[in-house]
Specification:
Length: 95
């Protein structure tokens, strides 16, 4: 599976983005990093993830956000984030 960053570009109507992500991705395939940033796991493209969530929908209910695929990762973050990403990128069940 691939991991994607979903970053809201505004905090307006952020609850709608959260609901859309929760509707499309079960708890094991999504991780909220902060108020405007999620990680999701999917086997599709960035375009497909954006469409699935409704970011590019014409109804404009879901606020603007950017979806990028994670090819590599490095930095400093809580261990639960690194563990989640490792499981999703390397495969296997998130336990």
């Amino acid at each position: 599976m691939a991991v994607f960053n979903i970053v809201a570009t505004t905090d307006t109507n952020i609850a709608e983005l959260e609901k859309a992500i929760e509707k499309c991705y079960d708890e094991t395939d999504r991780l909220r990093v902060n108020d405007l940033y999620w990680l999701v796991s999917d086997n599709k493209s960035s375009v497909d993830v954006a469409k699935k969530i409704g970011i590019v929908s014409s109804d404009r209910v879901v606020p603007p956000a950017i979806v990028t695929k994670v090819d590599t990762y490095y930095g400093r973050a809580p261990s639960n984030i690194w563990e989640w990403m490792k499981v999703k990128i390397e495969g296997g069940a998130n336990e």
